[in-house]
Batch of 3 targets.
Target 1
Amino acid sequence: MNQISGRDSFRQAVFCDETLQQFDACYPEQARVLDHAMTSHDLLTLEALARLGTALPKASVEYNPGDLPVGIKPEDVPDNGMTIGDTIRTIDRSASWAVLKNIEQMPEYEALLLSLLAEIRPILEAKTGKMLKPQGFIFVSSPNAVTPYHFDPEHNILLQLRGEKWMTTFPAGDARFAADEIHEGYHVGGHRNLVWQDDFEAEGTRHHLTPGKAIFVPVMAPHHVKNGPEPSISLSITWRSDWSFEEADARAFNGWLRKRGITPEAPGRFPARSKAKALAWRVLRKVGFS
């Protein structure tokens, strides 16, 4: 495995007691802006991130022009014509957006991720059970870059480290903003980008993120992001839970039912559980009937 220099771990507490109380109050279903104390780290400079992007497997790197509309089909996203290293090193003028996925593949970044998650682990495990599949993502964005309207399957806290951005979030599980059929398709290999309608904007909640601010985003909560006038670096720390995996598998099973002419009821949001449908999908998948 490639090694990237940097400190082995982050020792100072990043989330203060007040922030932990706020997280406890919003987790797992309400998006909320939080405070954090990680203003700098030698693994998170532009040069370190350019090296990380080059070292990661190709499948773990995504980058494209940043001047995209909020709603765009995945197949319509163009290439920016640069390498990932050059994209990040020149992010102030490359008019691009980049994400480095699964940074825990590198030991130094894994240590950083786990040290941050350790601070919130008692709170989240008290509500949604054992913390599963910890993953980290780093977003590097040019001025005014746009991350299109999408959702993600993980519980997520995004820490803003440099620059500013505005994230607009929408309620998770509301079929107005992401139809049940889109959820079902996503969990069997569909894309995370969603169908945007301009009248959604008035019903979203706009959150302003600056260095020292973070935001908790619930599982599958639709959102889009607009970067400010300066380059931006954000670190996303994510995890899964038994509940989130059940919800995902129940959605996939509903898609299987829908293909057979049945209109299924959507899984309930937390604390509702979907054990029966999740088990049914896991059995179908195991025997190859999915």
Target 2
Amino acid sequence: MTFSVLSRSVEDYLKAVYSLNERGKAAGTSELARALEIQPASVSGMIRRLAEDGLLQHEPYRGVRLTRQGHREALKILRRHRIIETFLVQRLGYPWDDVHEEAERLEHAASETLIDRMADALGNPATDPHGAPIPTRTGEVDPTPGRSLDEVLPGTGVLVRSVPDNNRERLRYCEDVGLVPGARVTVTDADGDSVVVVVGPGSEPVRIEGAVARRVTVSESPGS
């Protein structure tokens, strides 16, 4: 089935399912309700509808995953969102902690032609301001595996790949402590509730709360 125009609510659902699936798990009704800030009863009805439309695969009591078509549509939405965020930061001077909500509003109205022209004007960037990979026009996305900061063993040096973009306070905190894409950090301690890191040589150790560490994606640091 080909979809020329999806409603805003459908796009939000597909993006939320993609985000949960990206972390390696199926999206359950309660997880989706929390992500979308709506009641679980509303989620159940939409899941049935999207499954009937061929966008979701629903396994009772095991959550949902995107079908091939649903995955393709989700990547289109993510491309629009991340290109808009990048354009707002690079061309319009928005701070990186002030673009997520703006992009949330604009992504549903922007045409693919506009997004392609914005991407061309930016030089077709591979990542958005928060380090998240930007899907290409053909629906390809960087498959490079990463892990969350809270999974890193003490004594290990890693490279920050991306930080969560949907919470202004956390973004400002990450920026204040230097936990930004491209930063090299060394984990010195971890206790399950927080992670202690040294950001760059000669820096003082910083304790990162678990809620932040779980959403920061890192990869092996070259030369570590």
Target 3
Amino acid sequence: MKHLSTGFAALASALIFSAPAYAQFNVAELQEKALADDTAYEIVEGLTTEVGPRLAGTEAEARARDWAVKKLTALGFENIRVDNFELPTWVRGEEVAQIIAPFPHNMHITALGNSASTGEDGMEGEIVHFRTLADLQAIPDNSLNGKIAYVSHDMTRTQDGSSYGYFGGVRFFGPRVASEKGASAMVIRSVGTDYHRNPHTGNTSFGDAKPIPAGAISIPDAENLDRIIERAKTLGEPVRIRMKMTPRNIGVQTSGNVIAEIPGSDPSLPIIVIGGHLDSWDLGTGAVDDGAGVAITTAAAKLIKDAGQPKRTIRIVWFGSEEVGIWGGRAYAEKYGAKGHAIAMESDFGAGRIYRVEFKLPEGNHALKTEITNALSTLGIGPWAAPASGGPDNGPLVRLGVNAIDLQQDGTDYFDLHHTPDDTLDKIDPAMMKQNVAAWVTVLSIIANSEADIAARPVEQ
């Protein structure tokens, strides 16, 4: 019996030591710590103060990567590295515009990413007004005869930002349409909702069309232009504008994704990927879009790290060059693929209060959804039926078959700031940011230790 007992003891000991050890997270305790934690605000404050705007492919974005590596190292994460990739790089130049007839006015204008230059002498032309992008699309090709197309769409304010999907089209591909119609340039009412005299920039794609100068004017200037157009009709006179925008392409430059990890106790389990994008537009300091996102996700991950080792590895990615075409997200998906991943999550809609959670999980995970939903309810967050997307940068990964959970923020005021000079640190509410961190740490503490079958289901491309 003695030898038998010894044998059982040895077997039990072997089983204990072979089973990966991991921390048992107390969700309520982590939420309480998050609501008192300043790490997220300190990250975004440091990034916007010490680096500032971080236009994709530029020296400023490179400085941001160096800053990120130092910050993630200081926070105690592991396996920190930069995955470089290359992209064509566009930079801004001089930007001025005036209405010259029938009533002279200066306007505040900014070039859209990939806009062509007017040249140093600028350009002048007659405005042809379209109320919607659909109106512009409806006219015959090559019918604008060198005139300047102007679209005065009116984007509406929504909590979830859903109006951006429709009204954003005037910026996403409107200049390409204008070029196909024969326009010499295009001007749009800013894709935004604020009434400061701040134009909203953002990327545009010309596809196979000839690039033309394309700019956004502030909403007050757009509404003034609308009134002038109506008066000009009664006078029987054309409206003419003069503008000068001198952006340029500086060739292929280097960008990169900054990656850090909390290694899990069981490396055989598919990992969790979280993050936001490090780059920003150059008009503000990129606090809301998306300094807040990298700060929120990283602060939540640090709370997990400080509480002990999770079962699954948590990988933090500060994506590069999102604003100009989701280059970082596509580079990550191409390098790593879906295999070995479980869930992707991203924060890229400012720092407003999180109010709902969305899921994209394999069948049979009702219990996991219920556990997460119940835990989030204490923070005033409820479930939503729409499937999660994983966010812009994780989109390419999710399309390969990786699962996703979205924590949706209140974006009622987001497009007051989005891509404008007003995207600065003072617009972030520290208390709301802490609520975000509390929501994120809640979800991470559950999924990082979950034994549910949440492995990616790779799909053929």
